[in-house]
Design a protein that fits this description.
Topoisomerase I, Chain A, domain 4; Gyrase A, domain 2; 2 domains; 4-stranded antiparallel β-sheet; 4 helices
Length: 185
């Protein structure tokens, strides 16, 4: 019973960390990645569709992304969607493909990315703390229903706190590593 609570808590906290790391992919670091376009959607025959579903997206070097739509009539739609998304580069449409040339990041842009990253990290920590609260509530309910003793409840809550501390430390380490990566010129 308590082991189920521990494993569920561990699983939820782990997914909070993974979600934060997925969010990091939308941040721009020194080298441009195709994931900066992950949130860009176009109207594809009445359905909002991700760019990678309507063409190939390739980072050809550290500052350039090339988008080759599978249907050439989508070029203007993709061009408009990228312009509206404000990804940090102006689309260059040559009638065959769209190229995005990203300028080198300035110190201010790097600091802004770090600020966004820290916000994502704080969201992940809040999520982990909410998972801790939910687990502790379940433990307290078991104690209230006389399924476990007060001592068992106290030990269980301490174990949940250890799991929480481990995940918070992991998030802090990931943030520290990511900050060093972003600020490295």
């Amino acid at each position: 019973m308590l082991n189920e609570i521990y494993s569920e808590c561990e699983s939820k906290m782990k997914s909070s960390t993974e979600h934060m790391q997925r969010d990091f992919k939308t941040l721009r670091t020194g080298k441009v990645t195709t994931s900066v376009l992950d949130n860009v959607r176009i109207d594809y025959y009445g359905t909002m569709t991700a760019l990678d579903q309507v063409g190939s997206i390739i980072a050809t070097d550290a500052t350039t992304i090339v988008i080759n739509p599978w249907e050439k009539n989508l070029l203007a739609t993709i061009d408009n969607a990228i312009s509206k998304a404000n990804v940090g580069a102006t689309p260059n449409n040559d009638g065959v493909q769209i190229k995005l040339f990203f300028p080198a990041m300035t110190v201010e842009q790097r600091k802004e990315s770090v600020k966004q990253m820290k916000g994502m990290g704080e969201d992940a920590k809040v999520s982990v703390r909410n998972d801790r609260k939910n687990a502790n509530d379940k433990i307290k309910k078991l104690e209230k229903d006389k399924e476990i003793t007060t001592d068992e409840s106290k030990v269980a809550q301490e174990n949940v706190q250890k799991i929480t501390d481990k995940h918070i430390a992991n998030i802090d380490q990931i943030l520290k590593d990511k900050e060093a990566e972003i600020l490295k010129v």
